[in-house]
Amino acid sequence: MKAALILASGSSARAKMLRDAGVALEIEKPAVDEDELKASYRADGADVIDTAIALAEMKALAVSRKHSGRYVLGADQMLECEGIWFDKPADVAAARAQLKALRGRRHHLVSAAVLVKDGERLWHHVDRAELTMRDLSDEFLEWYLALAGEAVTSSVGAYHLEGLGAQLMTRVRGDFFTVLGLPLLPVLAILRTHGMLHA
């Protein structure tokens, strides 16, 4: 028997969140050029919220086309700091530069989720969390990067708040799951509405 939900995301953190919450799912990474789409939306004057929703929907639709009758969840997370958008760092050197740009400053993580079926958007939700990074010393930054290693390239902020990344922050305002990359509680609610979880 096939799982009720297909997650259109390559994020292991999102898959873990859903599975830990009791959601049966399959994973299919969508073939979507996120960089090109972000650049297009930015050029059109879109904000991070609209862009995150659009990216989540495009991911879900790309997978939905291949799975008639199946529910597909797409998700996206964006980081914005004083009007600048940050992406997942390509390597540790890029993570270092990004963390230097964010240290001592407040930034926002926007997490969007879109549920589609048969190429039609049924529901979407977006949430925003505000994080303040402490003014990290260069010495601490090098220690952090050495310990975290390549894992810093797997998240848009170059940190995992549920682990070592907690040491980077002085304040977090907002939903913890949103920081991790998925507005989990609203997602669980819509899955219950569509009969994929016990009500």
Please tag this protein with its features.
199 residues, alpha/beta, Maf protein, seven-stranded mixed β-sheet, 7 helices, 7 strands, globular
Overview of this structure, please?
It is a single chain. The chain has 199 residues and is of the alpha/beta class. The chain has a single domain (5-193), classed as Maf protein. The protein has seven helices and seven strands. The chain has helices at residues 12-20, 34-43, 48-64, 92-102, 138-148, 176-180, 184-193; strands at residues 5-8, 25-27, 71-81, 84-86, 106-117, 120-133, 169-173. Strands 1, 2, 3, 4, 5, 6 and 7 form a seven-stranded mixed β-sheet that branches. β5 and β6 (120-133) form a beta hairpin. The two termini are 21 Å apart.
Helices and strands in order:
Elements: E1 5-8, H1 12-20, E2 25-27, H2 34-43, H3 48-64, E3 71-81, E4 84-86, H4 92-102, E5 106-117, E6 120-133, H5 138-148, E7 169-173, H6 176-180, H7 184-193
Parallel strand pairs: 1-2, 1-3
Antiparallel strand pairs: 3-4, 3-5, 5-6, 6-7
The radius of gyration computed from the alpha-carbon positions, rounded to a whole number of angstroms, is: 17 Å
What summary fits the major beta sheet?
Answer: 7 strands, mixed
Count of DSSP E strands? 7
CATH-assigned fold name: Maf protein
- The first-level CATH class is given as Alpha Beta
Number of helices: 7
**Which second-level CATH architecture applies?**
Alpha-Beta Complex
What is the averaged pLDDT score?
95
Indicate the proportion of strand residues: 25-35%
Strand pairing plus helix content: what structural class?
Answer: alpha/beta
Percentage of residues in helical conformation: 25-40%
